[in-house]
Structure formats: C-alpha cells, structure tokens
What does this fold into?
Amino acid sequence: LAGSFELRARECRAAGCDIALHCNGNPDEMAAVALGAGALEGESLKRYRAALKWRKPPKKLDVGKALARLATLLAPVA
It folds into this structure.
C-alpha cells in the first residue's frame, strides 16, 4: 500500500473492507488510520451489530492456573 496512513485506511474502506486495522501502537499513525477509516455506517454497521449478538461473556480466568500453564510452556526455553 502506498500513501499516508489516513489515505490507506480510506482506500481500504472504499475497497469494501468493514474496518482498517493498524496495530503497531504508534498513536499518531493510529489517529490517522481512525480518521481515514471513519465511522461505521450502512452495511458495515449492520454487520457489526449482527456480530455483537454472537458475543458471549468471557470465562472466569483462574490466574494461578494460567500462570502455572505459562511457566510449563516457557520452561523449555528458560
């Protein structure tokens, strides 16, 4: 892709993508992407609302068990 982050996001949406992702954590770049992507509307908004109906509450996390599992997974490379 060429152009500014704002332009890239705008062109992604114009090409039919519902969202434009930008994940490097640079706040200035993220703001430009958000500006270019704009708000959800039309069919994109309808798909978003339909997807929300499929959400389920998260399962309760047993932190101790999760940390033990992480330690087990990391042990071979520690």
Notes: Residues 5-77 form one domain. The chain has one domain: 5-77. The helical segments are 5-14, 27-37, 42-52, 63-74.
